[in-house]
Inverse folding.
């Protein structure tokens, strides 16, 4: 078909595999061959070969498909490697399956819409989607996307943020506004960019993304300088679990505020011209990182929040598209100094964090702009690392269940326990024989009313109440101390995360900071390494009945909780003997039936989801 050989050009589609984009221990040679196919096609898909031959090279990466190749895989596993066959079967079983017809249907889309050198994924019966394109290369071949555009970049004075700015200007952007708390570095960065790309190509504005007025002023200054705004990159971030409250303010609140301001200043519904918002997460937003559980949770939040905000509802209303980028380990000060800022109270966690980062492939910061930017709806890549629940009433995912002690004669503390799911938990604990339950919530009148009701149903001293604010350390700690003093022990802590109709900052404080505070207090008061007897921590995220586009924050909070809980539950924390469990999308009807089962049978780190 090659024009260099007298042909007319054409299209070559090579079938790789989803395992050409990730790893699976059960079939290392197969994985290597499929990575080879992806790399081969990406190389043949460069302009050099296309200009020579007129042939486009496309790659299809099917997920697990119902074929003999999959069903017989265990029989042909590598020999002499222990239980590698089971590892292979389990690994494939954890991925969503699909019929061959889904791949065939996607092939038509690939051939008709795929660009030369692009890589596409078909998995789980879902529509095919592009995961790698030639536009992600340094050549910046698709210049029209940024040509003459104005970009605002937080954390833009150094590292990845500066690399974003330089890349945009190189590809034809009319100007960039850098926002950062580092004044000296920011002014120098703007000066260097102007010297290299021209006068007024870059400006700097001191900005602390945790301060609402300063952050909005950055947007106002951008409009004043350039009279337009097309791209917002929320790049400012912290990897400092030691300062976890500030870390949440920057990584969570900063991204939410930056996204909302992006819609405010670019949205067509606000007389803007539309645009693009890029939220910078991390590779740790897609995988577990027990060396930095709070950071891990914040980046999972960014991925899910951005995913929800990329819903067509927002796009049609505002003309603003939302994207997410998840850089791997990049040579920046944030990585270099990470060991110093590990979460305190957990032994050599700093070294574990440092070693964990060292195990990941590193890249220079000037490659930051080359990272693949996915439309947030394509963050389903993250989901493939987790098994989908089966069609049983409830399914425990991630870890197998283990029979442990029951609830009888145990003492529990339930936050958010005056109504809804929290109150249902209180009743189920007492019905299952708990010695006592401390109800902790914000409404004192409702709390004492429920204590009276519980006393009538279950007897005196079975329930007590204490008023708290989930985000207030002093009040929350007092709830733990009061429970231990009143009932002479504490075995189970249940945090009921409620979705209330209030401003988003309160939601973050109560549902994210509150979870971190409660987890720290659980480990402090129940951990064997601190003189306790161990116990169970169960975090419950209630379901929200509205459509996904109406509750992006709630969805993101759930992802924070899952990622944070799983990081805390890793082997490093076994010294505490505190088992960490999570329930997502809990409903009033399902929680009562399953609470005792989850508490007694759930293994450390497991996540339960009704389906």
């Amino acid at each position: 078909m090659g024009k260099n050989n007298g042909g007319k050009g054409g299209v070559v589609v090579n079938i790789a595999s989803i395992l050409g984009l990730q790893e699976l221990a059960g079939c290392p040679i197969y994985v290597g061959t499929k990575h080879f196919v992806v790399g081969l096609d990406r190389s043949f898909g460069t302009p050099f070969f296309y200009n020579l031959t007129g042939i486009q090279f496309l790659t299809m990466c099917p997920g697990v498909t119902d074929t003999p190749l999959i069903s017989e895989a265990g029989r042909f596993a590598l020999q002499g490697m222990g239980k590698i066959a089971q590892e292979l079967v389990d690994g494939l079983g954890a991925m969503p399956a699909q019929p061959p017809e889904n791949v065939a249907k996607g092939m038509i889309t690939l051939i008709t819409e795929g660009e030369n050198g692009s890589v596409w994924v078909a998995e789980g019966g879902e529509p095919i989607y592009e995961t790698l394109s030639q536009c992600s290369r340094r050549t910046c071949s698709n210049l029209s996307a940024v040509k003459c555009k104005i970009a605002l970049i937080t954390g833009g004075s150094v590292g990845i943020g500066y690399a974003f700015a330089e890349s945009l200007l190189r590809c034809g952007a009319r100007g960039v506004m850098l926002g950062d708390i580092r004044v000296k570095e920011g002014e120098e960065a703007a000066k260097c960019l102007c010297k290299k790309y021209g006068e007024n190509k870059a400006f700097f504005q001191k900005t602390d993304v945790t301060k609402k007025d300063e952050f909005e002023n950055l947007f106002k200054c951008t409009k004043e300088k350039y009279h337009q705004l097309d791209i917002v990159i929320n790049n400012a971030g912290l990897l400092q679990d030691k300062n976890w409250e500030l870390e949440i303010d920057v990584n969570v609140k900063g991204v939410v505020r930056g996204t909302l301001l992006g819609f405010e200043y670019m949205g067509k519904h606000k007389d803007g011209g539309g645009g693009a918002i890029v939220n910078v997460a991390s590779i740790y937003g897609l995988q577990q990182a027990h060396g930095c559980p709070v950071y891990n949770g914040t980046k999972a939040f960014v991925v899910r929040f951005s995913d929800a905000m990329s819903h067509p509802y927002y796009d049609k209303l505002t003309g603003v598209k939302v994207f997410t980028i998840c850089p791997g380990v990049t040579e920046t000060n944030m990585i270099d100094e990470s060991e110093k800022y590990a979460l305190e109270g957990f032994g050599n966690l700093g070294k574990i964090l440092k070693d964990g980062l060292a195990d990941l492939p590193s890249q220079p910061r000037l490659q930051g702009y080359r990272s693949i930017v996915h439309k947030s709806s394509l963050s389903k890549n993250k989901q493939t690392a987790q098994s989908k629940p089966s069609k049983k009433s409830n399914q425990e995912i991630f870890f197998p269940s283990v029979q442990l002690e029951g609830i009888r004669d145990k003492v529990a503390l339930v936050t958010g326990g005056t109504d809804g799911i929290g109150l249902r938990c209180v009743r189920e604990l007492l019905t299952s024989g708990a010695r006592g339950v401390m109800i902790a919530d914000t409404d004192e009148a409702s709390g004492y009313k429920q204590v009276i009701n519980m006393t009538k149903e279950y007897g005196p001293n079975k329930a007590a109440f204490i008023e708290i604010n989930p985000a207030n350390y002093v009040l929350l700690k007092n709830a733990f101390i009061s429970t231990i003093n009143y009932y002479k022990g504490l075995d189970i802590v249940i945090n009921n995360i409620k979705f209330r109709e209030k401003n988003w900052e309160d939601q973050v404080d109560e549902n994210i900071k509150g979870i971190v505070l409660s987890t720290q207090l659980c480990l402090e008061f129940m951990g064997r390494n601190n003189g306790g007897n161990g116990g169970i921590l169960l975090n419950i995220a209630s379901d929200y009945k509205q459509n996904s586009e109406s509750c992006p924050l709630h969805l993101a909070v759930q992802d924070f909780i899952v990622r944070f809980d799983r990081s805390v539950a890793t082997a490093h924390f076994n010294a505490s003997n505190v088992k960490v469990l999570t329930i997502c999308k809990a409903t009033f009807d399902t929680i009562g039936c399953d609470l005792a089962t989850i508490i007694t049978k759930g293994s450390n780190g497991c996540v339960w989801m009704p389906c």
The chain has three domains: 3-135, 142-383, 394-610.
